[in-house]
């Protein structure tokens, strides 16, 4: 997994400039060989009910899928219901970081939802051009961080996605974990969040836009390269459906992130959406 420290350092400012590169390397080493990629509540109010598959509405968050059974190992889900997408594969990894932070102050950026959202976007997904934090909302154990691209002519940055993060574990120093995105004009609703899938997998959703070209990738924590990819799917219209089939290779039981992105008008990636699934055993 390659993480762009330069993009984070620019965003973070002088105080973080020296820390981010070291953090990036440390996280990469920590998560090598691990598995992971979700969305809303850890002792806090639940998120709004998700819209029906294929629909578009503001702040669409996934609910716990019936396919996520109580038989999953303890600590496999965030707050018992969300897919752990990044940076930790399970609660044990989150606790291990807490211990290292308490003993030596290591990797403090895990306590910052903005830095975590940018690391996920630029490093894990590889969208280095999406380097702006446009908005941030923190409510209890939940955070929504809008990441985007620089505005033309110095204007307001355009929002590429709203990253949903949840505190993973317990304590005031529980780290932030990416659990999904809140989708609006570009959605990824198939497969449903938390579904058990096998290869090939059918993916899809709806999009509003003109002359869109959608790329779909399957990613897993600890893997530098996509585990599967499909490019490119032509789409466009007002809430128009889009779909594709992607072949991937991943170990049974592994948590995966499916990410769909589109762009090409102003930047290579202008909007993206993710969902979390598990590979059938």
User: What is the C-alpha radius of gyration, as a whole number of Å?
Assistant: 17 Å
**Terminal residue distance:** 25 Å
| Spatial sequence of strands, sheet with the most strands | 5-9-8-6-7
Query: What is the global morphology?
Result: globular
Major sheet size, sense and barrel closure: 5 strands, mixed
Q: What would the average pLDDT be, to the nearest integer? A: 80
In sequence order, what are the helices and strands, one letter per element?
A: HHHHHEEEEEEEEE
Number of strands: 9
The class by helix and strand makeup works out as alpha+beta
Number of helices: 5
Concise account of the structure shown:
It contains 5 helices and 9 strands; from the N terminus they run αααααβββββββββ. It is of the alpha+beta class and 281 residues long. Helix 1 packs across helix 3 and helix 1 packs antiparallel against helix 5.
Annotate the secondary structure layout.
Blueprint: H1 5-12, H2 14-17, H3 19-31, H4 91-104, H5 113-124, E1 132-139, E2 142-149, E3 158-167, E4 176-182, E5 196-197, E6 201-219, E7 228-246, E8 255-262, E9 271-279
Parallel strand pairs: 5-9
Antiparallel strand pairs: 1-2, 2-3, 3-4, 6-7, 6-8, 8-9
